[in-house]
Amino acid sequence: MKIVLITGISGSGKSVALRLLEDSGYICVDNLPVKFLHEFIATVREENLDRVAVAIDIRSPGELAGLPDIITGLRAQGTELKVIFLDASDHALMQRYSESRRRHPLTDRLQSKGDSPSLLECIHTERELLAPLRDQEHVIDTSDLTPGQLRAWMRDLIQAGRAEVVLTFASFAYKRGVPGDADLVFDVRCLPNPHYDRELRPLTGRDEPVAAWLSQFGSVETMIEDISGFIRRWLPLYLQDTRNYLTIAIGCTGGQHRSVYVVEQLARRFADHAPLLVRHRNLPVRP
What we know:
With 287 residues, the protein is an alpha/beta fold. It has helices spanning 14-23, 37-46, 67-76, 90-100, 107-111, 119-134, 147-159, 208-215, 218-240, 258-269; strands spanning 2-8, 27-29, 51-55, 81-87, 138-141, 166-173, 184-187, 245-252, 276-280.
């Protein structure tokens, strides 16, 4: 039996993630009260359902503060529970609420305690309430992701088998900000930039002409070897830690050439680690 628990900040894409799980054959339940989680999982076992997804967030009645302990207890009982926490920057969330014209779920609750709260106050309060859960589980920062990218990342994540650490290499553009879900961040903006070659500019680090151009520089190979050596040295300690996920982010200016190439090369060097995921935040999803 596989159970996926989707949680996170309101407006971060939980509905998109839940629909992807539903399309992947999961039985999905949205807005489940925390106090019913034990009972729901017991029912799932009785019905012999093998793939189930549950969404619990700030809308759900019950004490969210107790959810981390409930998750720990379920795992101790042998329940295969994968928790995915979706997050986004304040700016991205405010823009999404502005476009959708929806009210934040905490608006009425905070209004009963005094003056009408602003959207930003609601978001910050929600972050405080969910902080203990965010710190313990796998986080996906959806600030710069399209719905298609989020669906692709979710699909990769749920297909990844159970392991001590799910290793993820992710490229990003510094001009769009450092990903909030990164555990380790490496800056490769000091490397030669294919952007200044007119023929290479429209291509990406996944294309052979860009790869061939970058591979001719010793500094590029040295950077990759240094990052690879650092990870190989410290990965055993991460494996001993209680974490289930390790995201290594590689950044360049535009997130198109250098960081993408380095991520692809690192993924080849760590191909023996399973499961291993590759993400390119600022590139379109390949079909």
